[in-house]
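Changelog entry

Holo records now carry the ligand SMILES as an explicit input line rather than a separate metadata file. Below, a converted record for adenosine-5'-triphosphate, shown in the new format.
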Amino acid sequence: MTETAITVRGVSAGYGATTVLHDITATVPRARVTALVGHNGSGKSTLLGVLAACLTPSDGAVEHAGAGRPALVPQRVHIPAALPMTVRDAVAMGRWAHRGWWRPLNRKDKAVIAECMERVGVAHLARRQLRELSGGQSQRTLIAQGLAQRSGLLLLDEPAAGLDQDAQERIMNIIDDLAGDGITVVHATHDPGAARRAGHCLLLDDGRLVRQGPPDAILH
Ligand SMILES: Nc1ncnc2c1ncn2[C@@H]1O[C@H](COP(=O)(O)OP(=O)(O)OP(=O)(O)O)[C@@H](O)[C@H]1O
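Structure line, unchanged by the conversion:
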């Protein structure tokens, strides 16, 4: 039987006086991939923000069944391209939630960082500056940063957007593997192919949840 990782009950949320999400009731299964689909501006990023507890609902509630603090990986386009930072530094930021940014990394932190870079195939790029990376390499670095938070819940905002076919496939394989290892993954996507690979799907339209369930039943 599939367990529920997150229950969203009657959630409305937005920015200031503007309500973007209206009365969303949905579930996210544990250790599966959930695809969040919908047109531009339908509220996918906003819902990820609510699931990550970055955004407080104006109404309703979000219940997490014990995956710890969620790890939110923002859209790549929101990361300044010229940021003077190596891949390793970026992944190390994933440890800040555990250690605070001002404390030196200990042996465990360093082991986690190395393992996360290895897992997504960027270990050989550890000393590269972010601005020197391809789109796929940047995206995998961001995922490694999310993984370094050691959360049971990974929230990814359009992780494969703007990448070529091979890079997209690589990201989607990483996502599938993470769920196989027991991590609950929610990703926003515009790509019906990526959504069809998910175990569960939430379809948003203009801030409302219009359907949820297996992708084949939702996407037609
Ligand atoms: N920080 C913000 N302040 C005010 N309004 C915002 C903010 N972020 C998003 N919005 C608005 O909320 C609505 C939903 O945006 P959101 O980014 O959640 O949609 P989305 O489905 O993720 O879109 P896209 O597919 O283009 O990324 C849009 O009308 C957008 O303009």
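Spot-checked after migration. The radius of gyration is 17 Å. The beta strands are 4-15, 18-29, 33-37, 59-64, 71-73, 153-157, 184-189, 200-205, 208-213.
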